[in-house]
DNA sequence: AATTGTATTATGTATGACATTATAAAGGTA
DNA sequence: TACCTTTATAATGTCATACATAATACAATT
């Protein structure tokens, strides 16, 4: 029997640990809708007895579920199913010193795509007070010097406000999750090339488009505003 | 002293558990760059002795780090720092039966924004063979019937290919992560309204724009293509 | 009725033992 | 020497038991 035919005929042995099995077991209960949000799951000792494994194993499985936000545990109360806070979970692993360069760049790209693509949501959900706030932010914009292309805090304030206007909490959390990366990217010199500031749409320009334009115009304006970032990403 | 002034003057006591502290401790080592990818971290027993807590506590902290992808552990070898696979981590918690309606809608919105905003990356990185593949996918497109507005598998194939063309692995993982949601959204009747198919840009139209157009045109085409989704989101 | 004390219960932590397995070392054969 | 096999070893994985801690419910007290 050749190796190939062997591989086709033999069935993979299960290398998963007990914890893996218990975890899968519990997750399956969720998939099959035996359990839904708010439901309590059995106590550790009950699970231990029911499933025939030690409490140690049960605990590790529960810890895993807790880390990914599927359950919450409290002393004396036990654990209940929860609706996970998707992007907040990621924040912890969003450590720029740990993520490799490719991932950092890709996350940055995702940000660019999102900010261009969110135009429709901005127009759909913006309120007059938002315009006022945007104007206020723009007015307090620090002067652009040669050394410092832009002030990061101000950037975050402005773009953060845009995320907020979308009314999409998760989108905003996504931005928040990326903040440490921005900070890093701008401090690390990764993208620190002198940039052609001229002819790019300014923050003020963006606000004007939001006030008097259309989603389509906003996408183009935003694309132009972000041009320097695109340039640096694409030039290599 | 009033309650208000009391609250202002008293400092919050630390309610974090031992595991919380150990975890924070280890993460801090990463932040301060004492540890970087590939580095091994001390054995459980060493940590236990060094930090003066039981192995149980150490193990739970390590489990947490493992779940969020910061370390990998192997028998006999111990644990090493790894660069987390950001979006894949989320896949587990991306359970449509657990996520609440708002989150589901918001994730769907993020998808729409991304697909519109990714135009530049598609143009920047597309290769001739990609066009061929897109054409092939479009040609095998099933006939649109009244009952079934579109074939989900085909949708995934086409849009998945677009994600792939962006050359952004994480963006692709993001799409993959959302698949169970699409499936759910389309099966659950959540968005199942009859839709005006006429005058919308088809998949074929998208490919034409990719071949002969520009990022700007692609954004508009994609926005139009996704119009039915936007309609259903915005109408309520 | 509202507050304070008390018992209970489930999770959190500690300890010690053994199981499992991937690596490294030792040994044997060509 | 080089390669394969066996054996030892060191780390994580699992088990069992005990106790600590904290949140709840309920009783007691004012």
Q: Count of DSSP helices of chain A?
A: 13
The CATH architecture of the largest domain in chain A = Up-down Bundle
**What does the radius of gyration of chain A come to?**
25 Å
Q: For the largest beta sheet of chain A, what order do the strands appear in spatially?
A: 1-3-2
Task: Write up what this structure looks like.
Two copies of one chain form a homodimer. Chain A has 236 residues and is mainly α. Chain A has two domains: 3-84, Arc Repressor Mutant, subunit A; 89-234, Up-down Bundle (Four Helix Bundle (Hemerythrin (Met), subunit A)), CATH 1.20.120.530. Chain A has helices spanning 3-9, 18-31, 44-51, 55-67, 86-91, 101-117, 119-125, 128-139, 152-165, 169-187, 203-212, 215-225, 227-234; strands at residues 40-41, 71-74, 78-81. Chain A has a three-stranded antiparallel β-sheet. In chain A, helix 2 (18-31) crosses helix 4, helix 7 (119-125) crosses helix 12 and helix 8 runs antiparallel to helix 11 (203-212). The mean pLDDT of chain A is 86. The interface between A and B is large, with 60 and 60 residues. Chain A binds a DNA duplex (30 and 30 nucleotides) through residues 17-19, 43-45, 53-57, 59-60, 73-79.
SSE arrangement:
2 copies of one chain form a homodimer.
Chain A: H1 3-9, H2 18-31, E1 40-41, H3 44-51, H4 55-67, E2 71-74, E3 78-81, H5 86-91, H6 101-117, H7 119-125, H8 128-139, H9 152-165, H10 169-187, H11 203-212, H12 215-225, H13 227-234
Antiparallel strand pairs in A: 1-3, 2-3
The first copy, chain A, binds a DNA duplex (30 and 30 nucleotides) through helix 4.
């Amino acid at each position: 029997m050749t190796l190939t035919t062997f591989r086709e005929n033999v069935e993979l042995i299960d290398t998963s640990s007990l914890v893996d099995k218990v975890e899968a077991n519990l997750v399956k209960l969720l998939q099959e809708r035996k359990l839904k949000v708010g439901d309590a799951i059995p106590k550790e000792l009950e699970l231990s007895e029911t499933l025939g494994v030690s409490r140690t194993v049960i605990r590790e499985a529960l810890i895993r579920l807790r880390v990914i936000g599927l359950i919450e545990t409290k002393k004396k109360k036990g654990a209940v199913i929860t609706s996970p806070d998707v992007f907040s979970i990621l924040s912890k692993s969003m450590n720029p010193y740990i993520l490799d360069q490719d991932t950092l760049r890709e996350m940055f790209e995702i940000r660019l795509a999102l900010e261009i693509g969110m135009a429709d949501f901005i127009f759909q959900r913006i309120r007059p007070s938002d315009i006022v706030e945007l104007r206020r932010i723009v007015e307090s914009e620090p002067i652009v010097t040669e050394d410092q292309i832009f002030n990061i805090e101000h950037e975050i304030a402005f773009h953060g406000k845009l995320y907020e206007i979308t009314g999409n909490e998760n989108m905003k959390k996504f931005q928040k999750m990326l903040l440490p990366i921005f900070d890093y990217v701008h401090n690390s010199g990764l993208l620190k090339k002198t940039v052609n500031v001229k002819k790019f749409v300014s923050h003020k320009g963006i606000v004007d488009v939001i006030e008097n334009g259309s989603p389509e115009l906003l996408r183009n304006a935003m694309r132009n505003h972000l041009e320097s970032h695109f340039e640096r990403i694409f030039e290599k």
